[in-house]
Automatic annotation (TrEMBL):
A motif (Nudix box) lies at residues 47-68. It comes from Bradyrhizobium jicamae. This is RNA pyrophosphohydrolase. Its EC number is 3.6.1.-. It comes from the Bacteria. Accelerates the degradation of transcripts by removing pyrophosphate from the 5'-end of triphosphorylated RNA, leading to a more labile monophosphorylated state that can stimulate subsequent ribonuclease cleavage. PANTHER family: NUDIX HYDROLASE 26, CHLOROPLASTIC (PTHR11839:SF22), UDP/ADP-SUGAR PYROPHOSPHATASE (PTHR11839). It holds the Pfam family NUDIX. InterPro entries: Nudix_hydrolase, NUDIX_hydrolase-like_dom_sf, NUDIX_hydrolase_CS, NUDIX_hydrolase_dom, RppH. The gene is rppH.
Length: 166
């Protein structure tokens, strides 16, 4: 039963540029319970926290793994939030199948580098690329670009980090 499974510890990244827009990437494939729906492929970077890893270390590792960016300053973070995965009928051996969803701490970071630092297509740390495109977007519009099971969290992140989007 889904509710008997734990949540996967995870960090989310709202990377703001100097103009107050956030980086989003277009996912180009499903990852088990983390499905991609046509027209709703965009999301902010996020990823799992390794056992024993501090969330502040995880956020910088995930930012680099998924985007190549390393030039970022800490601004703020949220409390823990959760979302449920949709029903998953795939192989129960998938690395995410043992989780009911994700327990996330979101971080606001200010990008201090140049756009050519961002390269989501190069695999890093043995992790495959998740995004085939990226762009800067208004934070208040991102919830409408993500899969429905993430929208409540994205709306809460938009409210919490609104001051950095100005």
């Amino acid at each position: 039963m889904q509710s008997d499974k734990p949540y996967r510890p995870n960090v989310g990244i709202a990377l703001f540029n100097a103009g107050g827009r956030v980086l989003i990437g277009r996912r180009f494939k499903d990852d088990g319970p983390e499905i991609v729906l046509p027209g709703l492929e965009w999301q902010m970077p996020q990823g799992g926290i390794d056992p024993g890893e501090d969330p502040r270390q995880a956020v910088m590792r995930e930012l680099w793994e998924e985007t190549g960016a390393v030039s970022a300053d800490y601004l703020s973070e949220t409390d823990w939030m959760t979302y449920e995965f949709p029903p998953y009928d795939g192989p129960q051996t998938h690395r995410l199948a043992k989780f009911r969803g994700q327990r996330q701490k979101w971080f606001a970071l200010r990008f201090t580098g140049r756009d050519d630092e961002i390269d989501p297509l190069t695999p890093r740390n043995g992790q495959p690329a998740e995004f085939d495109q990226w762009r800067w977007e208004r934070l208040d519009l991102v919830a409408d670009l993500v899969v429905p099971f993430r929208r409540d969290v994205y709306r809460a992140v938009a409210v919490r980090f609104a001051e950095f989007a100005r």
